[in-house]
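P.,

For your records, the input lines for the assembly:
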Amino acid sequence: MKIWQRSLILLLLPSSALLTTALHQPQDPRPAPYHFTKIDASGGPLPIWSGPWSCVCDHRSGLLWEVKTDSENIHDGLWTYSWYDNSWADVPDNDQFTAQPAAHRGAPTTIGTPNNGDCYFEEERCDTADLIRRTREEKLCGVQDWRLPTAAELQTLIYTDAKAGQPTIDTAFFPKTKRGDYWTSEQDESLQTVYNYLKSGAVAVSFVDGQPITIPHRNAAFVRLVSDNSKSCH
Amino acid sequence: MAADRKSLRWVLLHGIAAIAVLCSLLTGLRIASLARPEVARFEELLPQGEVVGLHFLSALAITLAAALYVGHRLLTAFRDGATLSYRLRSLSAWRWPGWHRAIIRAGYPVLLLSLASGWLLFIGTQWHLRDWHYLGALAMLCYLALHAGLYLARWGRHSLLRICLPQGGQRSHTRLLAGAGTLALTLLLFTTGWIATVDQSQLPLPVTQIPLTDPQHPPIEIDGRANEPQWQRAAPITVYTDGGANFDDGATEITLRALTNGEEFFLSARWQDATRSLVHLPLLKTANGWEVQQQGFHHFDETRHYEDKFAVLLSSNCSFGAAGTAHLGRKPLSDRPANWHGKGYHYSSDGQLHDLWHWKAVRTNDMYLADDNFIGPPDQMRPGERRYTAGYQQDGKESGAYVMNWQWYKPTTIVPKRLPADPMQLAALQNDDRENLREKAEWVIPWFDYQPYSAAQDARFPEGTRMPSVMYNSNRFEGDRADVRARGEWKDGYWNLEMARKRVTGSALDAPIAEGTCLWVSAFDRSQIAHTRHTRALRLQFSAEPLQ
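Structure tokens returned:
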């Protein structure tokens, strides 16, 4: 190889490398696929780094979850609720055309303690039935069948790799979650220790340690509603 | 050319020098890319990770190689009996030495400039030598291109053989022994030099002991004034920090004083900052809606619409590069996300936790706190979080915080979380006078002074309305994150900051403060991540007896 050829190569190689690097814009980070999808208030999916969002679809379980806010609306994460179910209150026991299960006939038409939590959106204080009713009326994320989750359903959200001091949930998808107890639909469970005299209560899942705990209906705990029949998630 | 082989000694010395110069140049340019956008353009050619220590290691190798070379030349001159008069006569009979020699000789002052400016920067002189050091690096880059380029152009691969393969032939045992001895001595010198550089380079920061209870003086109040008599007893130390954004050429001197009453550790910091920057990502009402005023926040590197800040890193580890936590580059961890700004991450490679106190002139100052953070191992990937911060994390808190006044950040328009009940509440912020905006107006929103956003209320705010974005939803953190009390006051072009924390908090996320704890400080002038820095750690030295 002649000198001029080597010179040309030596000039061109580093020059082109420098020019290419200078002209090349590094790509911005991109999100990785994940099993949660953000859903907006009308039920439409959002890109993973977009917002604001009102619900989260978990593609592992097919469940659509309510997302808490700090906007002082009915979904504010600070509000607490006593456990209360009045869903059978308007259904006569002898009505053969309702969906009331035979096992329930003759049972009390309301269960739990009404209006013993703290919120701004009710004239009286709040209970779980209030949030369910209001969320159904609102058709949050296009869904009407909002309900309390079972303990097993709620525990699918437990995230053991939470950052220091944060609740055991993926706060990037579920912000405004408190390190506290969240009600489930499971009730008529025996109360233990200091609550023993109250006989039975409902199950809540702690987002401190992820474990279920039975507490009196009258207690003020947090709530995250769920739907298992949403279009957004199926 | 092939026959013109060099000695083994020359090959070794040249090889070490070449590798060290290349390493120093590339790591140095990576460090420079933090503050020099023109270098950052070539970031993909530069090494990533823990380059700061490597830069000093290679600088030591070059220094040693240069010293050996000078020694060798002096020895040769002495052996050849060259006298000064002979040298002077040679100078008078000077003739053009040829391109190769001319370039090599031009490299000597370049090397001298780079080494001298580098070591003076390392020592921490007040001279502004950063530009000279950078100039030396660019000149060295040219030197390498010309020196290596001309040899390669003229002799091609033979020139590579020449620098890699020593001349053959039999060597006497004596010469081999002498060579091995020289090599061993060189390695010993290098190792000793490196250990001395690492272990002895810290600057002592005296921590003056004061009585836990002093009937003569009231306790120290964390008010940003440091005017209690106890502070007069603390010996000040001033460190030159540079490489930040804004300030005067990105640099400021920080004067520190430290006290302890046995239970608590007090730190006073004073640094020059011509402007008191409190306008933190303000919101501006436009024809399209509310916009966040920013020019780099979208990439997490805002340098204009941001508050002033100050950070203190404390660790039992005194390694270079902020206890070895500074890992530069866009993606220093191959299995973790890249960062948005290309500058790097802080994290520990060995699992150790390092304490980080982060005072923020708007977000924490009115809480009389610094944000108690830590730097630990790189966090796992969290797909929902747009910003990955590696080892930089916050201590846990029970409640209380600041939140930003937008429902969701977008670079276009945002919807505020809350609005003032009366637009007149924002009247003081509409004055365009810079001094008023930066230094007098109130830029923190107490949560209950505003009400939840509604479109009807929004319509009452005309285009051009300016609104703060930082909201306190309680007056302080509670829990681990509130361990560091802090208050800063800006006066006459200086920030004065007082900080206090228990020496041992009992939290696993806090470093105990003890004899030998190392400390680094950084100032931020209306910048999000572009902070000033210093090379040598400050090592705490506790006085034995309390001063009465």
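Two observations worth noting. The interface with chain A takes residues 41-45, 145, 149, 152-154, 156, 299, 330, 337-340, 342, 379-386, 388, 393-398, 403, 407-408, 415, 417, 452-453, 473, 479-481, 509 of chain B (CB under 8 Å). The radius of gyration of chain B is 28 Å.

Regards
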